[in-house]
Amino acid sequence: MELREVEPTPDKSLIDELGRKKSSFESTKLRIFTDKEKNEYVANREELERKKQTKVIWENWSSMTGRFVEASFETFVYHGEEEDQNEQHRIINELLNLDLLAEVKSGKNILFIGPPGTGKDHLLFCLLRTIWEQLRGTKSVKYMNGADFRYQARKSRCNSEISEEQFIKKFRGKKIFCLSDPAPTGGEPLSASQADVLYHALEHRVFEGLPTWMTINLPPGETLLSEATRIFTAPVWERIKHRSITVLCNWQSYRKPARIL
After folding, report:
1. For residue 12, what are the CA distances in angstroms to 6, 9, 16, 156?
2. Using one digit for the tens of pLDDT, what is the confidence trace for 168-213?
3. Cα–Cα distance measured from residue 181 to residue 218, given in angstroms and rounded to the nearest whole number
4. Quick one: pLDDT at residue 255?
5. The dihedral of CA 186, 191, 195, 197: what is its sign?
6. What is the DSSP string of 173-232?
């Protein structure tokens, strides 16, 4: 039998597959970008990352502020007699003119002092809102209401779940520590253990040059010093007042008095 060399018949499906792969390879060849395209790409990436970070920062604001989430100087409700409202306008204008970042850097405390219902906490959050994004939210700010502070301060003294040092560490390193109404309502003084923990927390922040912003339910006037000393003790009040900006909210409460049925 005569053997003949047979020309192989190409497989069309294989040729088509190779063609597709070649086309795909050609389309994914490394492309040389111009400087303009590179700059636009970097700028777009940076803007996208900034938006993501900003979203997280304001989500932190929502989770931290609770009922004060909408607090701003534009939403502050002026209330009371004309004289009271004039004083509120004056205070807010002074707060708006503060160089807040400079005050934070200098370590000055800011105190809002006045009777309950005058809008002290609202003003504190208004002030905080103006620099919240620059401070990068909860990475630089610690907030605690007075009831939680007193409870955790007592807990740190009464059991081993959290030591006093661990509790105080919560307030260290934060650029601003915001504390709302650290004293019990009704003029009741802090317990000795609560006053001691508050003193040490403030002492650490003073030593580190870090400010504390605080709202305090005390009536401004001639009795302020004696009442503050009685409720907080003299050493604690000295630390609270250390290099402080004091905002006296000495006007009528916006809360309506309770009706007796």
Report:
1. 18, 9, 6, 80
2. 777 777 899 999 999 887 888 998 888 988 998 899 899 999 999 9
3. 10
4. 63
5. negative
6. S-SEEEEE--SPGGGPPPPHHHHHHHHHHHHHHHHHT--EEEEEE---STTHHHHHHHHH
Predicted pLDDT at 104:
93
pLDDT digits (tens, 9 = 90+) for 234-246: 999 999 998 899 9
Q: Can you give the length of the chain in residues?
A: 261
pTM metric for this prediction:
0.78
Identity of residue 194: Q
Q: Bridge-partner residues for 142, per DSSP? A: 177
Which of 102-106, 118-122, 255-259 is least confident? 255-259
Task: Spell 27-50 as b/e; 16+ CB within 10 A means b.
Answer: eeeeeeeeeeeeeeeeeeeeeeee
Q: How far apart are CA 161 and CA 1, in angstroms?
A: 97
Nearest Cα to Cα of residue 176 among 248, 103, 238 = 103
Tokens standing for residue 174:
């934060």
Q: Residues 172, 206: contact at Cβ < 8 Å?
A: no
SS3 126: helix
- Strands 212-217 vs 109-114: parallel, antiparallel or unpaired: parallel
Q: Kindly tell me if the per-residue pLDDT of 17 is higher than 80.
A: no
Collapsing DSSP to helix, strand or coil, 167 comes out as: helix
Pick from 75, 113, 122, 124: which is nearest to 249 by CA?
A: 113
Judged on CB neighbours under 10 Å (0-12, 13-18, 19+), 171 is buried
